[in-house]
Structures are given as structure tokens and as C-alpha cells.
Design brief:
The chain is α/β, with parallel strands linked by helices. The chain is elongated, with a radius of gyration of 27 Å.
């Protein structure tokens, strides 16, 4: 049996306000091409199909198209819900959709009931474990602790009970933070009481475990892997190679694995330096077509920095400032005395930028201060008896 392992599509998500739906549709095209060209028998999607519990209608439309195309393909499909999905919404109509060869497994109570498939070597039992909320399952499952490890241990106990009654090669889908994987900035924290990590030993003796939740691919063992997200959703993923795992399941278990790269809409570059250097350094030509996150180290904050940055890097999305040699911090809560609101704002600009406001900026700040008072002619002094505007 040839398995294609993917996860964390996050349909409907944006990347720093850049819509990603078109790129997600390109990934769906790629996925179907791989199913056909590699003669995939089973596609497993280990959670986070959507980016939110109430997905935008366009994201739902893309998911509907993806499921319809997968149902018409040569492959069977098993999908579980992640911590971003609404299990009830994603699982709606699952019993009806089963008949099309697309199996939506979002109900925690059914984790011990597999999708049973056959190949030339016999039976394969596929167990879809959705994201498990330890708080919600503590009482109904009689968990010994309100932790992800306790919830997954109970789920795997039910899986093993079924395998003991009906032995078969096994595939498990799980959406969790398993020890050995590396998080990025784009996953939502699932910690409960500060504890979110699950031991990889929970999945011992499973023929193949397809993990979801972490956005970077990872090999935690020959039979235990994260596929990662098919697209980058934060600049912390700049070094990631995105795609899916192609897994061959033989008579004794996993016989071969291959990582299939997904199409990347753009590269990611994180740049640091003063603005003039970033605009002139010939070594940065490689980043001119990338999405860019830039940290400017200019001692004096440049005028129109993003506009100027985009003159060379038109896809710059994030701009931060870390002036070189600046070890000072703003004093928060210090109450200036005998200064007008306008003077306080000018002091703030000078402290943050390292240079005074221009005449135009000073006029704009004066107008802002005036707009916050009942009497625009009364620019109040910050004194012990007055909190200012």
C-alpha cells in the first residue's frame, strides 16, 4: 500500500495579510498530480484542514473541491480534525461521505474504530485520532490527568484493544506535539497547564504514524513522522522544505519513504542591516523576489523605510527596528511634569527614533493632540493634578 501523508493545510489562512488561498489551490493540484503519478492508494491528512473553526466560504469551497477530486481519484482518503478545525463542522455528513471513499474522522469516541482497507498483503487498519482536548475528555474518559499525554495514551489503548481483537498492519493519524518535533511561530499553542508534549513511545508498535500540528517536517523514527504544513505560514519557517511523505507499506510494515516537495509560491528571506546597505548590497539579489522580513539597524530611523525597502524588495511584508549600539530602553510610566501633550509626543519621537520630528511631523502630532481635547486651544500641561489629554 502506498500512502501519501500530509497535514496542516490551514485553508483560508493568510501570510502577513497576503491571501494564500490561490497558493493553497495550487497545492491541491499538486497533491492530485502526486496521487496519479505515484499511484497512491491512501491519502492521510492529519488535522488542521481549515485555519479556523468558522472558515471563510472560499476556504470551504476549496475544501469541497479538494475532497470531490480526491474522491474521484484512485486513492482512499482518511482525514482527521486538528486544533484549528471545528470537529463537528468538519465531520458533518461523514457517514454519507464514507461511501465515496473519503473518511472524515473527527469524533473522539470512535478512535478505536478503524477504516479497514486491503492490499496484496492483507488487511490495513487506519485509525484517525482527531485533536483531543484533555479538559473535555477528562471526565468521559476517566483520564488520570488533564494532559495531552493522558488523552493520547487512552486513545492508543483503544486502538491497541482493537488491534488485539483483529490483528492487522496499522496506520495512525494523530494531531499533537510529540517529543522530538520542533515548533515554529505559526502553530497555535495547545499546552494545558504548561504541558503539551507527548512521548513518542505512545506510538510504539504501530506500522506507521502520520503526525500533524507542527509545521516543519520531522522524522522522529522510521515509522513516526511529521509532514509539516504544505506552505510556510511564518518567517520562522524560512529554512523549511515543504511537502508530503510518500510511504510504502509492505507485508512487515514500512519498506520505503520519500519526501515529495510541494510547489513554493515564493522564498522567504529575513534581512538585517541599515537601510542603505540592504538597498545596495549585491549579495541580496537572491531575495528580490522573496517575501521579506527586514530588521533595520540604522541609528536614526529612516524616512519612509517600507516604501524605500519595497523599491528593491517589492514583496517585503514585515519591518522591525533594532538600532545598532542602542542599549537604552524607553522609561514606561515616568510622569513628565510641566510639559504639554505635544511636547511629550515630540520627546517620545526623539527617544524612539534617535532624531527629532520634522516640522511636518510636529504639526501632525499637534493636530492629534488637539483632536483629543475638548478645547483645541487648550493644550494641557501634564502636572500632578492633571493626567493630560
Amino acid at each position: 500500500m502506498r500512502i501519501l501523508h500530509t497535514s496542516d493545510w490551514h485553508l483560508g489562512r493568510s501570510f502577513h495579510r497576503v491571501g494564500m488561498l490561490g497558493h493553497q489551490a495550487t497545492f491541491v493540484d499538486h497533491l492530485l498530480e502526486v496521487v496519479a503519478s505515484e499511484q497512491v492508494d491512501l491519502v492521510v491528512v492529519a488535522g488542521d484542514v481549515y485555519d479556523r473553526a468558522l472558515p471563510h466560504v472560499d476556504a470551504v469551497r476549496l475544501a469541497d473541491e479538494a475532497l470531490a477530486r480526491l474522491a474521484a481519484s484512485r486513492a482512499r482518503v482518511v482525514i482527521t480534525s486538528g486544533n484549528h478545525d471545528s470537529a463537528q463542522r468538519l465531520g458533518f455528513g461523514s457517514r454519507l461521505i464514507d461511501s465515496a471513499g473519503v473518511f472524515l474522522r473527527t469524533d473522539a469516541s470512535a478512535v478505536g474504530t478503524p477504516v479497514r482497507l486491503d492490499d496484496d498483503h492483507g488487511r490495513v487498519s487506519v485509525y484517525g485520532i482527531p485533536y483531543l482536548d484533555p479538559q473535555a475528555l477528562h471526565e468521559p474518559w476517566g483520564l488520570t490527568a488533564r494532559t495531552h499525554e493522558a488523552a493520547l495514551a487512552e486513545a492508543m489503548r483503544r486502538v491497541r484493544d482493537d488491534l488485539a481483537a483483529r490483528p492487522a498492519r496499522s496506520v495512525v493519524l494523530a494531531h499533537a506535539f510529540v517529543a522530538g518535533g520542533l515548533p515554529s511561530d505559526s502553530e497555535r499553542d495547545i499546552s494545558v497547564g504548561g504541558v503539551s508534549v507527548v512521548s513518542s513511545a505512545i506510538f510504539d508498535d504501530i506500522s506507521y504514524t502520520a503526525l500533524g500540528h507542527l509545521h516543519g517536517r520531522a522524522v522522529l523514527g522510521e515509522t513516526l513522522r511529521y509532514s509539516g504544513s504544505p506552505l510556510a505560514y511564518s518567517f520562522s519557517e524560512a529554512g523549511h522544505t515543504k511537502g508530503s511523505w510518500l510511504v510504502d507499506l509492505g507485508s512487515e510494515g514500512v519498506s520505503e519513504t520519500t519526501f515529495v516537495e510541494a510547489p513554493a509560491p515564493r522564498g522567504l528571506s529575513t534581512l538585517t542591516g541599515d537601510l542603505d546597505a540592504l538597498l545596495t548590497d549585491p549579495r541580496l539579489e537572491r531575495a528580490e523576489h522573496d517575501w521579506v522580513q527586514a530588521t533595520l539597524t540604522d541609528v536614526v530611523r529612516p524616512d519612509r523605510p517600507m516604501e524605500r525597502l519595497r523599491s528593491r524588495f517589492p514583496h517585503a511584508l514585515v519591518l522591525a527596528f533594532a538600532p545598532s549600539g542602542d542599549d537604552t530602553t524607553a522609561v514606561v510610566g515616568r510622569a513628565p511634569r510641566g510639559l504639554t501633550d505635544h511636547e511629550v509626543s515630540l520627546d517620545f519621537v526623539r527617544e524612539m527614533r534617535g532624531a527629532p520630528a520634522t516640522d511636518d511631523e510636529s504639526a501632525l502630532l499637534q493636530a492629534a493632540c488637539d483632536a483629543c481635547t475638548d478645547d483645541p486651544d487648550a493644550d494641557m500641561l501634564l502636572s500632578p493634578a492633571s493626567g493630560g489629554a
